[in-house]
């Protein structure tokens, strides 16, 4: 019997719902916006503490701070150092925190706090320009020893990675090979490795890592060896030769720059305290959305005032969905199609019970006054206008009486849309005259019931969270409402209405 | 609580609200034709061209300042009906059956002063009863006097006959009798009695009030099972003509039988209610499907009425 196909319609709806869900899932994965409220994410709080003795002359302390640490994202940075001038500067590709002060004497302590979020995908270290190996000059007899060890290592390896592993193994102090002993004696083991690798044509450098463990104080940095394999920087443990960064290790310093320089002081040292914190996942996502390429699509970028307005606006579709469901599928009669939604919005601001009491009392008093108005024989427009003013009087009266009696909730009546209430009173009054009190009670109760249902849906923390943080889910709501517009089945109320038809079945 | 299963309703072919709206009203009723039926004044004019008679129009009140003239006009009238042109569901219709000095007697027997009627007119003009609250005009029509054969069944008010016309074919009919509960109005949801009529013969089938089956009129106490509408085929033909007049594929046609003028069209309804199915004790869906399944539609209203009388008769 269908004269035109409904397939395009249903395809479009399926697409709409699919698009909404897919976008939400994508944003959840990509931006880390949580599905549920109150979800927590771990964050590492690392505090670098610099101690030094100032020698009564201008001081400049400069600490290397991480910029791109593999496996971590920086959430926030903060310096605490009373009396010092502070700035973060970029120098030769590395970031440094610099404190300065003119006249200082005695022991000094400076703090630098950073919050890191673990993120396995963050910052794989790919330099834009491929680094070149540094040319190294060796003196005899080291030059020969180096050449021989490198030849050995090269024979047993095929790639820069395996070469590095092999070299580290050969350079173990306990290997007891003659060449090794000659080289190792008296020099820094790690520096030696870096020099040898550079000599072999593999760009190499040192890095300092920090083992992240909760509630640790006065931690030092662990040195690591990094080589460039032609694509990215790889990290090796210079003792075991193990490739890759151990878990929960943060690379605080990468590259050649020094960790700490203090001009105008001595006995300087850096130590680290680590704390594991949790922050709401939502806050995290909001902070990160600025950095993310698609962050501009989210509502977090709006001023806070607009955000709170959108919070409210984005709840309305849920109310509309509720009304559509109640009227199309359940078959509840309401007075005014979307009056219940507006009442529900007012309930959201007033809370349910005070809202219900305030609303019913305003409408009841209004109905009584409307009884008098109808005997005045007024034109419709002026009657409604008069009713609006009366509703405002009633509202003010209730607020004052409520306040004097000690109920602050009396004030909440002001949230109700006055014009809507006036129209509701007018309609109810006419309904009363035409169809009797029964119909007024049915429609009034129906409206309140739908309003309460809409309120419960709109007030649920989960729906507030989802509507605001995943606005794309409204495509799904839209799809459902469109689907309901094609529902041709029986309403629940019709199953009751048509009951007498049982006799003919 | 008593319920009927959706399966049983489907088996009975009961048309429901959602299907009526989606599959019939929105598909077969062109929106541009709605003003023709939503405005009783336009209805009157357009059906007149197709030879369908309506109650005599006495006055049209379009402006607030015309209301005082209403009193002059009403001086020498005994019975009339005031209707909002764009009213729906019988809202705002006031029927005056007589005079008592300066006061008017409503169909319910209540006496009201002229000022009451003027306020009523003013309300109508302001749009209180119109569908979207838009400004309206009031029409004053001659009071219809029903033939005694039907009038005796109705308590106050005029009994009317609702016929559902689908693509020009009468598919279902019922007689609506006013009761005390319905305040002289013939609307089922206000408490009027609905008596299903056999499309084939015009004889009564079942009766319902407030969706419950009844056998006697609650006020007059008359049995409702042997009602027989005279000139049935003519009435069906007349109802079918409204299809040509309005172009609406799915509509309700309300007819009355006047003692002087014969069958008159009272109003058309682009969204006829579903209670007619309960008065008939059968669903609309099989009949609507039968019409939709016709390979070739009949051209004249006479042919369509004849076809419906044969196809949808209960006598088989």
Characterization of this structure:
By secondary structure, chain A is α+β, with helices and mostly antiparallel strands. Chain A has two domains: 39-132 and 203-298, no CATH class; 308-497, no CATH class. In chain A, 46% of the residues lie in helices and 22% in strands. Chain A is built from 16 helices and 13 strands. Chain A has helices at 7-31, 142-155, 160-170, 178-184, 189-199, 281-289, 304-313, 316-330, 339-350, 352-375, 380-404, 418-435, 437-459, 461-469, 473-484, 492-497, and strands spanning 40-55, 59-65, 72-80, 85-91, 94-101, 105-118, 204-211, 216-219, 222-228, 233-236, 249-254, 260-263, 265-280. In chain A, the strands form three sheets. In chain A, strands 3-6-1-13-8 form a five-stranded antiparallel beta sheet. Chain A has a four-stranded antiparallel beta sheet with strand order 4-5-2-12, with no helix packed on it. A four-stranded antiparallel beta sheet of chain A has the order 10-9-7-11. The radius of gyration of chain A is 36 Å and the shape is elongated. In chain B, the strands form two sheets. A seven-stranded antiparallel beta sheet of chain B has the order 11-10-9-8-7-12-13. A six-stranded antiparallel beta sheet of chain B has the order 1-6-2-3-4-5, covered by helices on one side. In chain B, a hairpin with a 3-residue loop joins β12 and β13 (262-269).
Can you lay out the helices and strands and say which pair or pack?
The complex is a heterodimer of chains A (505) and B (316).
Chain A: H1 7-31, E1 40-55, E2 59-65, E3 72-80, E4 85-91, E5 94-101, E6 105-118, H2 142-155, H3 160-170, H4 178-184, H5 189-199, E7 204-211, E8 216-219, E9 222-228, E10 233-236, E11 249-254, E12 260-263, E13 265-280, H6 281-289, H7 304-313, H8 316-330, H9 339-350, H10 352-375, H11 380-404, H12 418-435, H13 437-459, H14 461-469, H15 473-484, H16 492-497
Antiparallel strand pairs in A: 1-6, 1-13, 2-5, 2-12, 3-6, 4-5, 7-9, 7-11, 8-13, 9-10
Chain B: H1 6-12, H2 17-28, H3 34-38, H4 40-48, E1 57-61, H5 67-74, E2 80-84, E3 94-100, E4 103-106, E5 111-112, H6 114-126, E6 138-142, H7 148-151, E7 160-166, E8 169-177, E9 193-197, E10 204-209, E11 212-214, H8 232-246, E12 250-258, E13 262-269, H9 276-280, H10 285-292, H11 301-311
Antiparallel strand pairs in B: 1-6, 2-3, 2-6, 3-4, 4-5, 7-8, 7-12, 8-9, 9-10, 10-11, 12-13
Helix pairs in contact in B: 5-6, 8-11
């Amino acid at each position: 019997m269908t004269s035109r196909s409904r397939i395009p319609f249903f395809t479009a709806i399926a697409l709409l719902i699919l698009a909404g869900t897919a976008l939400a899932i994508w944003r959840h994965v990509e931006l880390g916006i949580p599905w549920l409220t109150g979800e927590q994410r771990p964050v590492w709080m690392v505090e670098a503490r610099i101690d030094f003795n100032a020698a009564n002359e201008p001081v400049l302390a400069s600490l290397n701070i991480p910029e791109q640490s593999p496996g971590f994202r920086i959430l926030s940075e903060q310096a605490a150092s009373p009396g010092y001038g502070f700035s973060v500067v970029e120098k030769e590709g590395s970031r440094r925190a610099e404190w300065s002060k003119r006249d200082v004497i005695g022991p000094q302590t400076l703090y630098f706090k950073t919050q890191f979020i673990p993120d396995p995908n963050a910052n794989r270290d790919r330099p834009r320009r491929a680094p070149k190996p540094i040319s190294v000059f060796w003196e005899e007899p080291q030059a020969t020893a180096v050449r021989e060890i490198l030849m050995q290592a090269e024979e047993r390896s095929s790639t820069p990675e395996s070469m590095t592993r092999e070299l580290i193994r050969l350079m173990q102090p306990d290997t007891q090979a003659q060449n090794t002993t000659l080289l190792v004696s008296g020099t820094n083991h790690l520096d030696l490795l870096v020099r040898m690798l550079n000599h072999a044509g593999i760009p190499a450098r040192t890095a300092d890592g920090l083992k992240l463990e909760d509630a640790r104080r006065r931690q030092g940095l662990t040195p690591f060896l990094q080589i460039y394999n032609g694509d990215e920087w790889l990290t090796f443990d210079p003792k075991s030769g193990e490739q890759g960064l151990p878990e929960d290790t943060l690379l605080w310093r990468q590259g050649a720059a020094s960790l700490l320089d203090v001009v105008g002081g001595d006995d300087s040292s850096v130590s680290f305290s680590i704390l594991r914190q949790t922050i709401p996942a939502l806050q995290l996502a909001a902070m990160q959305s600025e950095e993310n390429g698609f962050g501009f699509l989210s509502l977090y970028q709006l001023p806070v005032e607009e955000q709170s307005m959108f919070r409210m606006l984005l709840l309305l579709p849920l109310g509309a969905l509720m009304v559509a469901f109640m009227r199309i599928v359940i078959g509840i009669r309401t007075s005014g199609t979307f009056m219940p939604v507006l009442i529900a919005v007012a309930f959201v601001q007033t809370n349910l019970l005070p809202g219900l009491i305030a609303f019913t009392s305003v409408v009841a008093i209004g109905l009584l006054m409307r009884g008098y108005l109808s005997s005045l024989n007024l034109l419709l427009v002026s009657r409604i206008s008069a009713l609006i003013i009366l509703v405002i009087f009633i509202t003010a009266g209730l607020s004052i009486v409520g306040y004097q009696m000690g109920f602050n909730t009396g004030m909440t009546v002001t949230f109700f849309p006055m014009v809507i209430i006036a129209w509701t009173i007018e309609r109810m009054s006419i309904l009363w005259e035409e169809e009797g009190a029964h119909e007024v009670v049915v429609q009034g109760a129906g409206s309140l019931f739908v309003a309460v249902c809409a309120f419960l849906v709109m007030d649920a923390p989960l729906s507030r969270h989802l509507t605001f943080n995943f606005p794309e889910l409204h495509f799904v709501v839209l799809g459902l409402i469109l689907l309901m517009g094609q529902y041709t089945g029986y309403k629940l109320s019709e199953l009751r209405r048509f009951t007498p038809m049982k006799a003919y079945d | 609580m008593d319920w009927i299963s959706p399966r049983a309703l489907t088996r009975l072919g009961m048309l429901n609200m959602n299907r009526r709206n989606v599959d019939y009203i929105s598909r077969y009723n062109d929106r541009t034709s709605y003003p023709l039926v939503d405005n009783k004044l336009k209805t009157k004019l357009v059906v007149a061209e197709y030879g369908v008679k309506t109650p005599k129009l006495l006055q049209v009140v379009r402006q607030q300042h015309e209301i005082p003239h209403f009193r002059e006009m009403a001086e020498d009238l005994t019975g009339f009906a005031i209707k909002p042109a764009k009213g729906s569901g019988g809202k705002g219709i006031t029927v005056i059956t007589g005079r008592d000095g300066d006061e008017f007697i409503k169909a319910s027997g209540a006496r009201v002063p002229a000022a009451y009627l003027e306020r009523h007119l003013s309300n109508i003009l302001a749009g209180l009863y119109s569908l979207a609250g838009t400004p309206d005009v009031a029409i004053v029509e001659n009071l219809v006097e029903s033939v005694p054969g039907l009038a005796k069944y109705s308590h106050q008010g005029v009994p009317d006959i609702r016929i559902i016309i689908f693509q020009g074919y009468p598919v279902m009919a019922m007689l609506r009798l006013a009761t005390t509960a319905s305040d002289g109005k013939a609307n089922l949801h206000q408490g009027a009695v609905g008596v299903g009529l056999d499309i084939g013969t015009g004889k009564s089938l079942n009766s319902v009030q407030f969706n419950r089956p009844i056998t006697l009129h609650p006020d007059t106490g008359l049995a409702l099972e042997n009602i027989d509408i005279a000139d049935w085929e003519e009435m069906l033909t007349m109802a079918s003509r409204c299809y040509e007049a309005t172009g609406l594929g799915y509509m309700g046609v309300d007819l009355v039988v006047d003692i002087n003028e014969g069958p008159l069209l009272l109003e058309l309804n682009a969204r006829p209610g579903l209670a007619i199915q309960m008065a008939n004790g059968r669903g609309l869906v099989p009949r609507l499907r039968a019409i939709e399944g016709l390979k070739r539609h009949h051209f004249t209203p006479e042919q369509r009425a004849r076809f419906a009388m044969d196809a949808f008769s209960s006598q088989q």
